[in-house]
Amino acid sequence: MKLITAVIQPHALEAVTDALREAGVAGLTISEVAGYGRQGGHTEVYRGAEYRIDTIPKIKLEILADDADEPGLVEVIVASARSGRIGDGKVWSTDVGRVVRVRTGEEGPGAL
């Protein structure tokens, strides 16, 4: 089992979730987060004064997937989130030792 985590631009959320649904993903978790990468922060002007904003709003997606599905799902996310501009985001996957569905007690791939 793998946990696929993606941090993407907010405007890419709809395209990514639509592509994941088409790829057969039954569920995912979406969180609003803030951070920065190579682009650093940005500056904004408010009432004539310039302010430095160190973090940028992003969307974090988390998807539990079977080992065999992980490479394809990562590609789906990358392809649907890519704009070609700095700050498009990152996708990574980690091993998951155990998954249990709370309602039924199912474990492993059946819990997905």
From TrEMBL:
O-UMP-tyrosine modified-residue sites: Y51
GO molecular function: ATP binding; enzyme regulator activity
InterPro entries named among the record's database cross-references: N-reg_PII (IPR002187), N-reg_PII-like_a/b (IPR011322), N-reg_PII/ATP_PRibTrfase_C (IPR015867), N-reg_PII_urydylation_site (IPR002332)
Keywords: Nucleotide-binding, Phosphoprotein, Transcription, Transcription regulation
Gene Ontology CC terms, in alphabetical order: cytosol
GO biological process, one term: regulation of nitrogen utilization
Cross-referenced SMART domains: P-II
Cited PANTHER family: NITROGEN REGULATORY PROTEIN P-II (PTHR30115), NITROGEN REGULATORY PROTEIN P-II HOMOLOG (PTHR30115:SF11)
Subunit structure: Homotrimer.
Protein name per its UniProtKB record: Nitrogen regulatory protein P-II
Organism: Brachybacterium nesterenkovii
